[in-house]
Amino acid sequence: MRIGFVVGQFPLLSETFVIGQMAGLLRHGFNVNVVCNGISDYNFADREQEPLATLLKETRDWWGAAAQLRPAIGRLPARFRDKASTALDMSSVGRLNECDVIVAHFGHNGARAARLKKWKRLRPPIVTIFHGYDVGVPLRERDLRRYNDLFEYGALNLTVNDFFRQALVEAGAPEAKVAVHHMGIDLRKIPYEWKSWQGSPLQLISVCRLAEKKGVEFALRALAKLRAGAPGLAWHYTIIGDGPLRQELEVLASELGINEQVSFLGSLAHEDVKQWLRRSHVFVLPSVTASNGDVEGIPVALMEAMAAGLTVVSSYHSGIPELIEDQKTGFLAAERDVDTLANRLHFVAEHPEQCERIALQARRKVEAEFDMESLDNDFAEILGRFAKSRLVA
Predict the structure, then answer these.
(1) pLDDT tens for each residue of 312-335
(2) Number of domains in the chain
(3) What class of enzyme is it (predicted)?
(4) Phi-psi region at 162: left, alpha or beta (left = phi > 0; alpha = psi -120 to 50)
(5) Do residues 349 and 214 both lie within one domain?
(6) Alpha carbons 89 and 91: distance in angstroms, whole number
(7) Predicted pLDDT at 237
């Protein structure tokens, strides 16, 4: 069976879950083709190694040689931009029609494929996966109707959490066409290892893009409160990742008087990140809804930290409570609630023995519901059903 993936730029460091899902289908014997908005310069992996080597051989730009027109078309008024984009999308229809099923990552890519389906140019069924900003931003703008064509012409809409599923159904998606399918992690590569901080400085870490929705600002503010309330407590906070807010966050750490206890390391290779996680005790990610409506799905970084034995501290945000139950598999505070976040961190610092039990339950939660191998099996079965039904039709 041949599966055609419709994505944005490919490959991207921030979307390794897409590569992981493609690799899972390759292991199940599927042929995978990729149609994208440009092939990126992916510097954090060897492009000659699998699965990227195989995937990149079957990757094409939507617009082929006309891709050089993308910046100019992007500057057009919306009405003309949509018409020009759809006309150029036609150049990839032949390649996509060779596939048995189309998988679109992110709602806007699904809507793009659905327009071709509406015009009777695209034949295979479309399965679209919604991840975060593709629900949060239009939800804030009261514009989920932008997916009406997808709701009608798409075969299935998969959301990474139940919060998104409910939002799409309320926006008019038929319930029979919407289901939850989690993203997962490869547990075989993440051994569980509990490390107590009894008698040693508490090592806190965040690994994320430094953007508004990640909530790092509130982690810094909570740690400043922790220092004021428990000045004798020894801790250090390591932040791995880059993004538009890095300089602002560095200034904030200095203004809060905690810059000597906070390290900004920027983006690191995956192996280096794993080493830092092994040295750490607590993973902090107090995500928030961004001013433009952007939200998390269920962050893979939290799953990986829970699998590795770190205690996680996060927020009641989007699908995160579907992963973390407060004081049972981790700790949660309301979005932007600095006082509660500081209290949670203080409790963690002083109760390593209780956190060990919580960390073990967290590992079991990830094993039960977020194991990539099990999820890949389910996804392959879903696509297989659609492919067979198309062949019968």
Answers:
(1) 999 999 999 999 999 999 999 999
(2) 2
(3) transferase
(4) alpha
(5) yes
(6) 5
(7) 98
